[in-house]
Amino acid sequence: MSIYRWSEDMILVVLPEDLEKDDCLQPVTQMVRHGHPCDVVVDFSDVQVVGGPWLTQLLKIQRLAQGRGHRLTLCNVAPAIRGVFAIAHLDDLFAFQEDRFTALASPQMVG
Prior knowledge:
Elements: E1 2-7, E2 10-14, H1 25-34, E3 39-43, H2 52-67, E4 72-75, H3 79-87, E5 95-97, H4 100-110
Parallel strand pairs: 2-3, 3-4, 4-5
Antiparallel strand pairs: 1-2
Helix pairs in contact: 1-2
């Protein structure tokens, strides 16, 4: 996993292929909780499988960001993984974008 400070107001998180073996969202949670308030874009380009603990961590990040007036956007989410969000009734809680470029630009277009 890689975390990039895309701008002063945005963090880009590129997830690894196997989320079950990598507990990488904890540093992101800490950055959102204790750092400068910012939007977070999480890129699922390489992700093959996502489980419950990851969904819980994403919800936590989403709530923290929203509580500070920012947003969490998920991009490059494969249809099968998007289905997991739908089955868990979480698809309405997250903002989804088709690709990284659109996800990184969308908060600027909205704001």
